[in-house]
């Protein structure tokens, strides 16, 4: 088995009595685009700054391509960092901004010119080479900042909220451009973001951070479909969580009694727990079907009923907030064509509806 390209071993950062990063262990592969995702204060930016050399670790090691860089100064690390603000020099042209780091390294003029042209072509900014930052759009400035970061051919590229300065529509367009550019270059990249969509779209793997710790690491689909805790399930996307007791479990199925639901929950997802143990069930809104009448095949498990209290119409789908008799709200996400393809009138406010979900969707959680 090959050695990971970047190894983070027991990394700790303390500010007085406060532990910002708590004994993190993480391996990242070469050419990987890795996202650190967390809310404000989770420790993700502090971790990124330690990788860049801008913060000194209180403990642990950072090993990049076989070299321990924990104590190296930022300028001695084969690492570049792109900030949310892009930090372009306003008095320099696009090509001068890209060339800046290369000139600092005192590379030959011919090599600098060749690399600048290579980067301009890579980010499709060749015709803007003589412009200054204020003459560019936000998306174009982002490309210039990326080109400058890649020009020195770093072993590791760090992105701090790389698309945070862009409006939502431009951010969505730029996500794929950025990924395509990084994949063409083949650079190993770690990005920090609080934007779930950004992390799930761009990264090959995602780490969920909270309180200075890694709560879960995996592919975007694994983290979303198979959360390892209530925290991760609620942090990534929307979900409905119900507390219950494990009634029965065998190799194929489990039956959970959730007091807030009128019927038991039946799931075929695998997990470790004992009969009588407290467990939680996570059901995503898109996995809950909405009906105007009780489904004939539902009797003993996986259903509920209530009254429509709110409807959020979002174009391609609508989210129904259904209040059960006990006051608990369940969210169900229904595709826009669902009712019309069945020649049915969509339910409206204060109308009684039924909800059900298939056995392969409830995700059992033990913490």
From TrEMBL:
Entry annotated with the keyword DNA repair: no
Primary enzyme class: translocase
Keywords: ATP-binding, Cell inner membrane, Cell membrane, Hydrolase, Membrane, Nucleotide-binding, Translocase, Transport
Keyword Nucleotide-binding appears in the UniProt entry: yes
Catalyzed reactions: ATP + H2O + polyamine-[polyamine-binding protein]Side 1 = ADP + phosphate + polyamineSide 2 + [polyamine-binding protein]Side 1
GO function terms (MF aspect): ABC-type polyamine transporter activity; ATP binding; ATP hydrolysis activity
GO biological process: putrescine transport
GO CC terms of this entry: ATP-binding cassette (ABC) transporter complex
Pfam families: ABC_tran, TOBE_2
Domain ABC transporter: 6-236
InterPro entries documented for this protein: AAA+_ATPase (IPR003593), ABC_SmlMolc_Importer (IPR050093), ABC_transporter-like_ATP-bd (IPR003439), ABC_transporter-like_CS (IPR017871), Mo/tungstate-bd_C_term_dom (IPR008995), P-loop_NTPase (IPR027417), PotA-like (IPR005893), Transp-assoc_OB_typ2 (IPR013611)
UniProt EC number: 7.6.2.11
Family of the protein in this entry: Belongs to the ABC transporter superfamily. Spermidine/putrescine importer (TC 3.A.1.11.1) family.
Functional note: Part of the ABC transporter complex PotABCD involved in spermidine/putrescine import. Responsible for energy coupling to the transport system.
Subunit structure, as described in the record: The complex is composed of two ATP-binding proteins (PotA), two transmembrane proteins (PotB and PotC) and a solute-binding protein (PotD).
Stated name of the protein: Spermidine/putrescine import ATP-binding protein PotA
Gene: potA
């Amino acid at each position: 088995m090959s050695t990971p390209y970047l190894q983070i071993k027991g990394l700790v950062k303390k500010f007085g009595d406060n532990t910002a990063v708590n004994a993190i262990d993480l391996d990242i592969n070469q050419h990987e685009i890795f996202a650190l995702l967390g809310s404000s204060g989770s420790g993700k930016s502090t971790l990124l700054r330690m990788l860049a050399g801008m913060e000194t670790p209180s403990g642990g090691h950072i090993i990049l391509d076989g070299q321990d860089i924990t104590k190296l100064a930022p300028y001695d690390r084969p690492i570049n960092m792109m900030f949310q603000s892009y930090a372009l020099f306003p008095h320099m042209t696009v090509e001068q901004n890209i060339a800046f780091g290369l000139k600092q390294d005192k590379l030959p003029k011919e090599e600098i010119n060749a690399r600048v042209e290579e980067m301009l072509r890579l980010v499709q900014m060749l015709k803007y080479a003589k412009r200054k930052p204020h003459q560019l759009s936000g998306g174009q400035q982002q490309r210039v900042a990326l080109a400058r970061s890649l020009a020195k051919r770093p072993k590791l590229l760090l992105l701090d909220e790389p698309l945070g300065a862009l409006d939502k529509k431009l951010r969505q367009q730029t996500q794929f451009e950025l990924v395509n550019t990084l994949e063409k270059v083949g650079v190993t990249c770690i990005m920090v973001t609080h934007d779930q969509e950004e992390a799930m779209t761009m990264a090959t793997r995602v780490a969920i951070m909270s309180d200075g710790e890694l709560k879960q690491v995996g592919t975007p689909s694994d983290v979303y479909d198979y959360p390892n805790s209530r925290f991760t399930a609620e942090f990534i996307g929307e979900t409905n969580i119900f507390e219950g007791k494990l009634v029965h479990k065998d190799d194929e199925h489990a039956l959970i009694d959730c007091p807030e639901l009128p019927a038991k929950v039946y799931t075929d997802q695998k997990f470790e727990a004992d009969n009588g143990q407290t467990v939680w069930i996570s059901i995503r809104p898109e996995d809950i079907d909405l009906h105007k009448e009780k489904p004939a095949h539902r009797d003993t498990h996986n259903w509920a009923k209530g009254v429509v209290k709110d409807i959020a119409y979002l174009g391609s789908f609508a989210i129904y907030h259904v209040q059960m008799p006990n006051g608990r709200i369940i969210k169900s996400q229904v595709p826009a064509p669902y009712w019309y393809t069945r020649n049915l009138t969509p339910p409206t406010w204060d109308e009684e509806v039924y909800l059900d979900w298939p056995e392969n969707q409830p995700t059992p959680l033990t913490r």
